Amino acid sequence: MFFIMGISQKKKRLDYAQMAICANCGRLSQVEVYMVYQYFMFFFIPLFKWGKQYFAVSNCCHSAVELPREIGSRIERGESVTLDASILSGGIQAKACDSCGFQTVEDFDYCPKCGAKLR
Ligand SMILES: [Zn+2]
Ligand SMILES: [Zn+2]
C-alpha cells in the first residue's frame, strides 16, 4: 500500500471490509477502503491537491481503485455499501517514476518525489 500513501499525505483507513474478487488478480480477497486527503507537494511543483479521495485496496495484490466520491463518503458515514465488480474494476494503474521508482496512483504529470516527468 506504499504507493497510496505517497510522501506525507494523510491516509485513514475507514471502518470497512468486504470480500470481493480482485479485479486485478482474480483472487477472492478482502477489500479495504482508505481515505486520502490533503496532499503534500513539493513547493516547486505546482500540483496541490486538496480534498478527500477514497480508494479501495485489495489485500491480495494491493491493487488500488479510486472510488467515486459519493460512494466513499457513504462508507465514511458508516453506511453499508457494496462495492461491486464494476466499481472495483475501475482500476487505476499505478504509475512508476523512471528515475526514482516512486509509485503513485494519482494522475500526476511529474513525479512528486523527484520532479521527473512521468510517462
Ligand atoms: Zn489482487
Ligand atoms: Zn521520481
How many domains? The number is 1
Task: Give the biggest sheet.
Answer: 4 strands, antiparallel
Separation of the first and last Cα atoms: 21 Å
Strand content: 25-35%
Calculate the mean pLDDT score and round it. 78
Number of alpha- plus pi-helical segments:
3
List the strand order in the largest sheet. 1-2-3-4
Bound molecules: zinc ion
* Number of extended strands: 6
Structural class: alpha+beta
Order of helices and strands: HEEEEHHEE
Task: Identify low-pLDDT runs.
Answer: 1-7
Q: Given the C-alpha coordinates, what overall shape results?
A: globular
Radius of gyration: 14 Å
**Helix percentage range:** 10-25%
Account of the 3D structure:
- This protein has 119 residues and is α+β, with helices and mostly antiparallel strands.
- The protein has one domain (2-104).
- 13% of the residues lie in helices and 31% in strands.
- It has helices spanning 2-5, 69-76, 85-88, and strands at residues 10-21, 28-37, 52-58, 64-67, 95-96, 103-104.
- The longest helix is centred in the middle third of the chain and has 8 residues, at 69-76.
- Residues 97, 99-100, 102, 111, 113-114, 116 line the site of one zinc ion.
Compile the SSE list and pairings.
Elements: H1 2-5, E1 10-21, E2 28-37, E3 52-58, E4 64-67, H2 69-76, H3 85-88, E5 95-96, E6 103-104
One zinc ion binds near residues 25, 29 and 61.
